[in-house]
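Box 3.1 A note on notation
Throughout this textbook, protein chains are presented in two layers. The first layer is the amino acid sequence; the second is a C-alpha coordinate string describing backbone geometry. Keep the layers aligned when reading.
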Amino acid sequence: MQSTHSSRSFLNRLTGLTCLLGLLLLPSALFGQGCVIARGGGAAAITDGSGYLEKGDWQLSLALRHFDSHRHFAGDDEQTQRSDLGTEVYNNSWFYDTTLTYAWSKRLNLSVTLPFVNHDRSSMYEHLGNTSGQRFSTQASGIADMQLSASYWVIDPDKAKRWNLSVGVGLKLPTGDAEARDIFIKSTGGIERYVDSSIQPGDSGTGCTVSLQGFYHIKGNLSAYGNGFYLINPEERNEVTGFSIPDGYMVRGGLEYRIEAIKGLSASLGVRNEGVIAHDLFGGSRGSRRPGFAVAVEPGITYSKGRYSGTFTVPIAVHRNRVTTFGSIKAGDAAFADYTFNLSVSVKL
Protein backbone atom coordinates (compact mmCIF):
# COMPACT_ATOMS: atom_id res chain seq x y z
CA MET A 1 0.00 0.00 0.00
CA GLN A 2 2.84 2.39 0.86
CA SER A 3 4.48 1.65 -2.49
CA THR A 4 1.25 2.50 -4.38
CA HIS A 5 0.87 5.77 -2.48
CA SER A 6 4.49 6.73 -3.17
CA SER A 7 4.09 5.97 -6.88
CA ARG A 8 0.96 8.13 -7.01
CA SER A 9 2.69 11.02 -5.25
CA PHE A 10 5.61 10.79 -7.68
CA LEU A 11 3.27 10.81 -10.70
CA ASN A 12 1.38 13.81 -9.30
CA ARG A 13 4.61 15.73 -8.76
CA LEU A 14 5.84 14.74 -12.23
CA THR A 15 2.60 15.93 -13.85
CA GLY A 16 2.78 19.21 -11.92
CA LEU A 17 6.37 19.70 -13.10
CA THR A 18 5.27 19.00 -16.67
CA CYS A 19 2.60 21.70 -16.33
CA LEU A 20 5.21 24.18 -15.09
CA LEU A 21 7.59 23.36 -17.94
CA GLY A 22 4.70 23.78 -20.38
CA LEU A 23 4.05 27.22 -18.92
CA LEU A 24 7.67 28.23 -19.53
CA LEU A 25 8.02 26.67 -22.97
CA LEU A 26 4.60 27.13 -24.57
CA PRO A 27 2.87 30.34 -23.46
CA SER A 28 -1.13 30.75 -23.19
CA ALA A 29 -4.19 32.64 -21.93
CA LEU A 30 -6.74 31.58 -19.34
CA PHE A 31 -9.98 33.34 -20.08
CA GLY A 32 -10.63 35.99 -17.51
CA GLN A 33 -22.91 26.64 -11.70
CA GLY A 34 -24.13 25.93 -8.61
CA CYS A 35 -23.26 22.68 -6.89
CA VAL A 36 -21.34 21.80 -10.06
CA ILE A 37 -18.45 24.29 -9.92
CA ALA A 38 -16.24 24.83 -12.97
CA ARG A 39 -13.28 26.74 -11.52
CA GLY A 40 -11.90 29.48 -13.79
CA GLY A 41 -13.20 30.92 -17.03
CA GLY A 42 -14.52 34.34 -17.87
CA ALA A 43 -16.60 36.43 -20.19
CA ALA A 44 -14.22 38.22 -22.52
CA ALA A 45 -12.45 37.12 -25.68
CA ILE A 46 -10.69 38.94 -28.52
CA THR A 47 -13.13 38.98 -31.43
CA ASP A 48 -11.17 40.97 -34.00
CA GLY A 49 -7.68 42.20 -34.82
CA SER A 50 -8.08 45.42 -32.81
CA GLY A 51 -7.71 43.61 -29.47
CA TYR A 52 -3.99 42.86 -29.68
CA LEU A 53 -1.55 44.23 -27.10
CA GLU A 54 1.65 45.89 -28.33
CA LYS A 55 5.07 44.78 -27.08
CA GLY A 56 5.69 46.14 -23.59
CA ASP A 57 2.02 46.90 -22.87
CA TRP A 58 0.50 46.17 -19.46
CA GLN A 59 -3.21 45.47 -19.07
CA LEU A 60 -5.28 45.27 -15.88
CA SER A 61 -8.55 43.34 -16.02
CA LEU A 62 -11.27 43.01 -13.39
CA ALA A 63 -13.92 40.31 -13.82
CA LEU A 64 -17.09 39.61 -11.86
CA ARG A 65 -19.22 36.48 -12.03
CA HIS A 66 -22.42 35.81 -10.07
CA PHE A 67 -25.12 33.14 -9.94
CA ASP A 68 -27.86 31.72 -7.72
CA SER A 69 -28.38 27.97 -8.07
CA HIS A 70 -31.38 26.00 -6.83
CA ARG A 71 -32.68 23.90 -9.76
CA HIS A 72 -31.88 20.25 -8.96
CA PHE A 73 -31.06 17.73 -11.70
CA ALA A 74 -30.21 14.01 -11.66
CA GLY A 75 -28.87 13.23 -15.10
CA ASP A 76 -30.84 15.65 -17.27
CA ASP A 77 -34.09 15.09 -15.33
CA GLU A 78 -35.11 18.04 -13.18
CA GLN A 79 -36.05 17.04 -9.63
CA THR A 80 -39.07 19.35 -9.41
CA GLN A 81 -40.19 17.69 -6.16
CA ARG A 82 -37.33 19.49 -4.40
CA SER A 83 -38.86 22.90 -5.13
CA ASP A 84 -42.41 21.60 -4.53
CA LEU A 85 -41.36 20.48 -1.02
CA GLY A 86 -39.13 23.51 -0.44
CA THR A 87 -36.06 21.31 0.23
CA GLU A 88 -33.84 22.60 -2.57
CA VAL A 89 -30.31 23.84 -1.89
CA TYR A 90 -29.48 27.48 -2.68
CA ASN A 91 -25.92 28.50 -3.56
CA ASN A 92 -25.36 32.24 -3.86
CA SER A 93 -21.87 32.69 -5.34
CA TRP A 94 -19.74 35.68 -6.30
CA PHE A 95 -16.38 35.44 -8.09
CA TYR A 96 -13.97 38.38 -8.45
CA ASP A 97 -10.88 37.98 -10.65
CA THR A 98 -8.04 40.49 -10.94
CA THR A 99 -5.71 39.79 -13.86
CA LEU A 100 -2.49 41.57 -14.79
CA THR A 101 -1.17 40.89 -18.30
CA TYR A 102 2.20 41.81 -19.80
CA ALA A 103 2.85 41.70 -23.54
CA TRP A 104 6.33 40.18 -23.90
CA SER A 105 5.78 40.69 -27.60
CA LYS A 106 2.75 41.29 -29.78
CA ARG A 107 2.38 37.49 -30.03
CA LEU A 108 3.29 36.45 -26.47
CA ASN A 109 1.27 37.55 -23.42
CA LEU A 110 2.00 36.59 -19.79
CA SER A 111 -0.74 36.84 -17.13
CA VAL A 112 -1.34 36.32 -13.42
CA THR A 113 -4.88 36.05 -12.02
CA LEU A 114 -5.73 36.50 -8.35
CA PRO A 115 -9.31 35.36 -7.67
CA PHE A 116 -11.52 36.08 -4.67
CA VAL A 117 -14.81 34.29 -3.90
CA ASN A 118 -17.79 34.78 -1.62
CA HIS A 119 -20.28 31.94 -1.15
CA ASP A 120 -23.49 31.49 0.84
CA ARG A 121 -25.17 28.06 0.90
CA SER A 122 -28.68 27.59 2.27
CA SER A 123 -30.06 24.09 2.90
CA MET A 124 -32.12 21.88 5.20
CA TYR A 125 -30.57 18.42 4.74
CA GLU A 126 -27.13 19.47 6.02
CA HIS A 127 -28.61 20.74 9.29
CA LEU A 128 -31.79 19.41 10.95
CA GLY A 129 -32.92 17.46 7.88
CA ASN A 130 -35.39 18.02 5.04
CA THR A 131 -38.38 17.14 7.23
CA SER A 132 -37.57 19.80 9.82
CA GLY A 133 -38.88 22.67 7.73
CA GLN A 134 -35.97 24.80 8.97
CA ARG A 135 -33.34 26.27 6.66
CA PHE A 136 -29.86 27.41 7.70
CA SER A 137 -26.85 28.85 5.88
CA THR A 138 -23.12 28.22 5.76
CA GLN A 139 -20.58 30.59 4.23
CA ALA A 140 -17.05 30.58 2.85
CA SER A 141 -15.04 33.40 1.31
CA GLY A 142 -11.49 34.47 0.61
CA ILE A 143 -8.71 34.13 -1.94
CA ALA A 144 -9.27 31.28 -4.39
CA ASP A 145 -6.70 29.38 -6.51
CA MET A 146 -4.24 31.69 -8.26
CA GLN A 147 -3.53 31.18 -11.96
CA LEU A 148 -0.40 31.89 -13.98
CA SER A 149 -0.81 31.73 -17.74
CA ALA A 150 0.71 32.67 -21.07
CA SER A 151 -0.73 32.93 -24.59
CA TYR A 152 0.84 32.87 -28.03
CA TRP A 153 -0.78 33.95 -31.30
CA VAL A 154 -0.16 31.35 -34.01
CA ILE A 155 -0.06 33.96 -36.79
CA ASP A 156 1.90 37.21 -36.57
CA PRO A 157 -0.75 39.82 -35.60
CA ASP A 158 0.72 42.30 -38.10
CA LYS A 159 -0.16 39.83 -40.85
CA ALA A 160 -3.36 38.30 -39.41
CA LYS A 161 -6.09 40.85 -39.95
CA ARG A 162 -8.93 38.47 -40.83
CA TRP A 163 -8.39 35.62 -38.38
CA ASN A 164 -6.02 34.31 -35.75
CA LEU A 165 -5.70 31.63 -33.09
CA SER A 166 -4.07 31.84 -29.66
CA VAL A 167 -2.88 28.68 -27.89
CA GLY A 168 -1.38 28.15 -24.49
CA VAL A 169 -1.09 26.59 -21.08
CA GLY A 170 -1.25 27.82 -17.51
CA LEU A 171 -0.52 26.80 -13.95
CA LYS A 172 -3.15 26.73 -11.17
CA LEU A 173 -1.74 27.06 -7.66
CA PRO A 174 -3.59 25.86 -4.50
CA THR A 175 -3.70 29.28 -2.83
CA GLY A 176 -7.39 29.02 -1.88
CA ASP A 177 -8.61 27.49 1.37
CA ALA A 178 -9.85 23.97 0.58
CA GLU A 179 -10.73 23.14 4.20
CA ALA A 180 -13.07 26.01 5.11
CA ARG A 181 -15.37 25.29 8.04
CA ASP A 182 -18.60 26.73 9.41
CA ILE A 183 -21.31 25.90 11.96
CA PHE A 184 -24.00 23.32 11.09
CA ILE A 185 -27.16 23.22 13.20
CA LYS A 186 -27.99 19.81 14.67
CA SER A 187 -30.53 18.67 17.27
CA THR A 188 -27.71 18.55 19.82
CA GLY A 189 -26.52 22.07 18.96
CA GLY A 190 -24.08 23.70 16.57
CA ILE A 191 -21.27 21.56 15.11
CA GLU A 192 -18.28 22.97 13.23
CA ARG A 193 -17.29 21.00 10.13
CA TYR A 194 -16.13 21.40 6.55
CA VAL A 195 -18.52 23.27 4.28
CA ASP A 196 -19.72 21.67 1.06
CA SER A 197 -17.15 21.28 -1.72
CA SER A 198 -19.15 23.62 -3.99
CA ILE A 199 -18.40 26.61 -1.74
CA GLN A 200 -14.80 25.78 -0.80
CA PRO A 201 -12.62 28.69 -2.09
CA GLY A 202 -9.95 26.25 -3.35
CA ASP A 203 -9.63 22.59 -4.30
CA SER A 204 -6.15 21.95 -2.73
CA GLY A 205 -4.62 20.73 -6.01
CA THR A 206 -1.86 22.04 -8.25
CA GLY A 207 -3.10 21.84 -11.82
CA CYS A 208 -2.49 23.15 -15.30
CA THR A 209 -4.68 24.46 -18.08
CA VAL A 210 -4.66 24.26 -21.84
CA SER A 211 -6.53 26.95 -23.72
CA LEU A 212 -7.54 28.26 -27.14
CA GLN A 213 -8.86 31.61 -28.32
CA GLY A 214 -9.65 32.66 -31.85
CA PHE A 215 -11.64 34.95 -34.13
CA TYR A 216 -12.63 35.10 -37.79
CA HIS A 217 -13.85 38.21 -39.61
CA ILE A 218 -16.73 37.00 -41.77
CA LYS A 219 -17.83 40.13 -43.62
CA GLY A 220 -18.44 43.78 -42.90
CA ASN A 221 -19.28 44.23 -39.22
CA LEU A 222 -19.80 40.51 -38.56
CA SER A 223 -17.19 38.27 -36.90
CA ALA A 224 -17.08 34.83 -35.29
CA TYR A 225 -15.30 34.16 -32.00
CA GLY A 226 -14.45 31.23 -29.78
CA ASN A 227 -12.49 30.50 -26.63
CA GLY A 228 -12.19 27.84 -23.97
CA PHE A 229 -9.97 26.01 -21.53
CA TYR A 230 -9.51 22.66 -19.84
CA LEU A 231 -8.24 22.39 -16.26
CA ILE A 232 -6.10 19.32 -15.56
CA ASN A 233 -6.02 18.37 -11.87
CA PRO A 234 -3.74 15.31 -11.54
CA GLU A 235 -4.12 15.03 -7.76
CA GLU A 236 -6.97 12.74 -6.79
CA ARG A 237 -8.58 14.08 -3.62
CA ASN A 238 -8.07 16.08 -0.46
CA GLU A 239 -7.29 13.40 2.12
CA VAL A 240 -8.44 15.65 4.99
CA THR A 241 -11.94 16.48 3.68
CA GLY A 242 -12.41 13.55 1.30
CA PHE A 243 -13.41 15.97 -1.47
CA SER A 244 -12.27 15.09 -4.98
CA ILE A 245 -9.96 17.40 -6.98
CA PRO A 246 -11.69 17.21 -10.38
CA ASP A 247 -10.90 18.37 -13.88
CA GLY A 248 -13.08 21.14 -15.29
CA TYR A 249 -13.65 22.87 -18.61
CA MET A 250 -15.36 25.76 -20.39
CA VAL A 251 -15.90 26.30 -24.11
CA ARG A 252 -17.86 29.06 -25.83
CA GLY A 253 -18.30 30.52 -29.28
CA GLY A 254 -20.63 32.61 -31.39
CA LEU A 255 -21.07 35.69 -33.56
CA GLU A 256 -20.37 39.34 -32.83
CA TYR A 257 -21.77 42.34 -34.74
CA ARG A 258 -20.20 45.80 -34.56
CA ILE A 259 -22.88 48.49 -34.21
CA GLU A 260 -22.15 51.42 -36.52
CA ALA A 261 -24.41 53.92 -34.73
CA ILE A 262 -22.34 53.81 -31.50
CA LYS A 263 -18.60 53.71 -32.07
CA GLY A 264 -16.92 51.00 -30.00
CA LEU A 265 -20.12 49.07 -29.23
CA SER A 266 -20.80 45.53 -30.43
CA ALA A 267 -23.37 42.84 -29.64
CA SER A 268 -22.77 39.11 -29.52
CA LEU A 269 -24.74 35.89 -29.35
CA GLY A 270 -23.19 32.51 -28.71
CA VAL A 271 -23.32 29.17 -26.95
CA ARG A 272 -21.45 28.26 -23.76
CA ASN A 273 -20.75 24.82 -22.28
CA GLU A 274 -18.99 24.35 -18.92
CA GLY A 275 -18.74 21.72 -16.26
CA VAL A 276 -16.87 19.27 -14.06
CA ILE A 277 -15.48 16.00 -15.41
CA ALA A 278 -16.45 12.61 -13.92
CA HIS A 279 -13.24 10.83 -15.02
CA ASP A 280 -10.06 12.91 -14.92
CA LEU A 281 -7.51 12.78 -17.72
CA PHE A 282 -4.63 12.12 -15.29
CA GLY A 283 -4.59 10.72 -11.77
CA GLY A 284 -7.51 9.09 -9.97
CA SER A 285 -11.11 10.24 -9.75
CA ARG A 286 -11.99 9.09 -6.23
CA GLY A 287 -13.49 11.31 -3.58
CA SER A 288 -16.72 13.28 -3.25
CA ARG A 289 -17.49 15.26 -6.42
CA ARG A 290 -20.54 16.39 -8.40
CA PRO A 291 -19.66 16.04 -12.09
CA GLY A 292 -21.97 17.57 -14.63
CA PHE A 293 -22.33 20.30 -17.21
CA ALA A 294 -24.57 23.15 -18.31
CA VAL A 295 -25.21 24.38 -21.85
CA ALA A 296 -26.31 27.99 -22.18
CA VAL A 297 -27.24 30.55 -24.81
CA GLU A 298 -24.99 33.55 -24.19
CA PRO A 299 -26.02 37.07 -25.34
CA GLY A 300 -23.58 39.87 -24.61
CA ILE A 301 -22.37 43.38 -25.33
CA THR A 302 -18.86 44.84 -25.57
CA TYR A 303 -17.82 48.48 -25.47
CA SER A 304 -14.31 49.80 -26.15
CA LYS A 305 -12.96 53.34 -26.05
CA GLY A 306 -9.30 54.26 -26.02
CA ARG A 307 -7.44 52.25 -23.36
CA TYR A 308 -10.66 50.89 -21.86
CA SER A 309 -12.95 48.01 -22.76
CA GLY A 310 -15.76 46.13 -21.07
CA THR A 311 -17.83 43.02 -21.75
CA PHE A 312 -21.11 41.91 -20.17
CA THR A 313 -22.70 38.52 -20.91
CA VAL A 314 -25.62 36.59 -19.43
CA PRO A 315 -25.46 32.85 -20.23
CA ILE A 316 -29.00 31.44 -19.94
CA ALA A 317 -29.11 27.70 -19.30
CA VAL A 318 -30.95 25.56 -21.85
CA HIS A 319 -29.66 22.14 -20.81
CA ARG A 320 -28.26 20.84 -17.50
CA ASN A 321 -26.96 17.38 -16.70
CA ARG A 322 -25.65 15.92 -13.42
CA VAL A 323 -23.63 12.98 -14.79
CA THR A 324 -22.72 9.78 -12.98
CA THR A 325 -19.87 10.00 -10.49
CA PHE A 326 -16.79 7.77 -10.89
CA GLY A 327 -17.57 4.30 -9.51
CA SER A 328 -21.35 4.87 -9.34
CA ILE A 329 -24.09 3.32 -11.44
CA LYS A 330 -26.66 6.04 -10.80
CA ALA A 331 -26.33 9.81 -11.01
CA GLY A 332 -26.91 11.77 -7.83
CA ASP A 333 -28.51 15.20 -7.97
CA ALA A 334 -26.98 18.66 -8.06
CA ALA A 335 -28.29 22.21 -8.12
CA PHE A 336 -27.75 24.40 -11.19
CA ALA A 337 -28.36 28.07 -11.94
CA ASP A 338 -30.85 29.35 -14.50
CA TYR A 339 -28.38 32.04 -15.62
CA THR A 340 -25.13 33.72 -14.64
CA PHE A 341 -23.84 37.28 -14.87
CA ASN A 342 -20.35 37.85 -16.30
CA LEU A 343 -18.81 41.31 -16.33
CA SER A 344 -15.22 42.16 -17.22
CA VAL A 345 -13.47 45.54 -17.53
CA SER A 346 -9.94 46.05 -18.87
CA VAL A 347 -7.59 49.01 -19.08
CA LYS A 348 -4.24 49.24 -20.84
CA LEU A 349 -1.73 50.71 -18.42
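The longest helix spans residues 2-25. The radius of gyration is 21 Å.
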